[in-house]
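worker-3 :: picked Alpha/beta fold hydrolase
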Amino acid sequence: MRIVVMLLAVIAACLSIWSLEAGRNGLTIGPFPIADGPPATLYEPQGQAAAPVVVIAHGFAGSRQLMEAYALTLSRAGYLVVSYDLTGHGRNPRPMTGDVTSIDGTTRLLVEEVRQVAKAALRHPRADGRLAYLGHSMASDIIIRAAADEPKPDAIVAISAFSLAVTEDFPANLLLVTGAWEDGLADAAQAMLRLADPTAALGQTVGDPAMGNGRRAVLAPGVEHVGVLYSAPAQQEAVEWLNATFGLQEKAEPAPRGLWIMLLLVAMAALAWPMARLLPKGPAQSRVGLRPFLWATGFPLLVVPLALAPLRTQVLPVLVADYLVLHFAAYGMLGLLALWRNGLLRGQFPPRVWPLAAAVAVFAIAVIGGMLDRYVASFLPNAGRLVIIAGLALGTVPYLVSDAILTEGGRAPLWRVLAARGGFLVSLMGAVALNFDRLMFLLIILPIILLFFVIFGTMAGWIGRRTGLPAIAGIGFGLLLAWALGVTFPLFA
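worker-3 :: tokens ->
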């Protein structure tokens, strides 16, 4: 059975990688150097003909990789595409500065950065002088505001958009694409459409993009804020809008990258099961009684958000990272304290735990993280982020060690697993509710932590059941979680 699972996982992973790489066929993809500018990638279609330029900007806590589905589809449709890492994001080592809540603060700097990238892209030998912007979420407002000054784009594609800068006739040729499961942003898109025509409905085009006065708002079916980045109908809308604007006829069939990425993640997770069977077998993890379990889950849930609410710290150069470290550390240490008082930490850390935990961390970060960096989002940190990762590990490792022991190395009943991990998510949401203005950015990582629990929590169970030492997975995946969060949050001076 182990060999069969390993074989199927390898086949699924290879098929996914082959399909994802096939989307690059026919394109020249490489770094696009910009003097004193952000790291960028150029997607160049085959042939020598001049083409319109499309500059792509990602959303908050994103990176170039997250926008690659649009970059590949538009480039295959004949456009010269430049995608870049915004200040403070991805591989961009320059931290965000200014007031993130002010139009004259961080927003102004990001608007200037878009223009810098656009000017550099228009100097490319194959650029024909025409320009379009495409941006997601936060970047939708950035590209709309950038359209007010030179170089002025001929068209804008705003995905999951919200911007107070939109008027009845600005910006010209605006396409609004929103996921059907984004209710609030769907209402915002309809409101921006009706600035041009109060009677217009979603799916209707106002004006004519070929004449430079078009506006359209559509919903991508069955997707939300991230899924819209992989939606084939959304990509088709973008291509058709730009083709109508520039008079191009080429069409590119969007590749189902989202499905292949999910299959790749499942394959990598499935591969961990037979690999866990290669670890030395140990005795079953000791049971955690109901009373210590309730103390170790309920007490931190109630105490941590209240105890940390008055604290104000800013040591790590990342938004809310300081608080996140404290929350993880306090939650984990209180859980470990409850376990220690009941004698449940005895024998949990024999010498073999440390090399095995290191092996788990290396596999997760190097192999799985390498796949994520290639196909999903930036996972390779610059030097400035290593300190952030180390700081986050001071919190994530104690928390995940506590979680691994509480869930009995994968042997605990399902209700206990849900209670232990759900309790942490509830405590984090409680912290946001107590300090919304300061901690609202924590809401961004909730889906990341939930996905982490589903995928890596399953893998941790396989390791714990095999070795009888939950701390192996707790330490290894604690380092992985610190790494994932450390490369996700934007740098901020």
